[in-house]
Specification:
It is built from ten helices and no strands. It has 246 residues and is mostly helical.
């Protein structure tokens, strides 16, 4: 029942969408799910072999840089109280910047290249990773630290054998938040300035008043985001398989 419940809810929502779309009867504004599926099938080569790889490349680079940047910032903040007080307000400030407003600036700096979209993705995705990694490292049990030190552990052993494993659950929690945000960031970057990608294709279809064409890349993007999220969950279960023995 637990596994079928999401699919049942999805079917119910799609049926409601179908009914409402047919009542509205304005395909250029609200196409039916059947029309969207048909459009995905019609444009499958363009969507899956041209624009989807472009978007996933942005997401992959953005997530990789976000993980590296977030972990480095988290480590610096745990090393020094002064660095924590210096970085934390800056981290918060980066999330108060309207992405819609700053994305065109990146386009001005880097043009319609991949790097303008990657920067938007990083700006959105690195924050939850940095905060989760920082909180995870800081939440290491004091009792365990004292136990390790009493057994002669040095700082390197304390970090890699205690603090890193203790921080991993929270790190993966942050990563699970960052993955869908990275997908959103890539789409926003493509929507505002790009020459390929699902966000760009959706915007192009909007200029043609093709409602199903607008929804089709969004649906593909949502499925890709769900698959990435599922991959992170499976990776978490594999990396943290030791937790079931606790």
């Amino acid at each position: 029942m637990k596994r079928t419940a999401p699919f049942m809810l999805l079917i119910i929502l799609l049926c409601i969408w179908e009914v409402i779309a047919r009542k509205v009867d304005m395909q250029f504004i609200l196409p039916t799910p059947i029309d969207v599926i048909h459009k995905i099938w019609t444009l499958r080569e363009v969507l899956f072999f041209e624009h989807l790889p472009a978007t996933m490349l942005v997401v992959a680079i953005g997530l990789a840089v976000s993980i590296i940047l977030g972990v480095i910032i988290a480590l610096l903040m745990t090393m020094s109280r002064i660095l924590e007080q210096a970085f934390y307000p800056v981290l918060i400030a980066t999330q108060t910047i309207p992405i819609i407003a700053i994305a065109p600036i990146f386009v001005l700096w880097f043009g319609y290249t991949i790097w303008s979209r990657v920067l938007v993705t990083i700006l959105i995705a690195f924050f939850p990773i940095a905060i989760a990694a920082f909180d995870g490292i800081r939440s290491t049990s004091t009792e365990y630290k004292e136990l390790f030190l009493s057994m002669g552990a040095n700082k390197r052993e304390l970090f890699f054998k205690l603090q890193v494993p203790a921080a991993m659950p929270m790190f993966f929690s942050g990563l699970k938040v960052a993955v869908p945000m990275a997908v959103i960031g890539a789409a926003i970057g493509e929507w505002l300035g790009a020459q390929d990608g699902l966000g760009y294709f959706s915007r192009r279809m909007m200029t043609q008043f093709d409602g199903a064409g607008v929804f089709a890349p969004i649906a593909v993007l949502s499925i890709a985001g769900l698959l990435l999220f599922t991959f992170v969950i499976l990776l978490e279960k594999y990396m943290l398989r030791w937790r079931k023995y606790q």
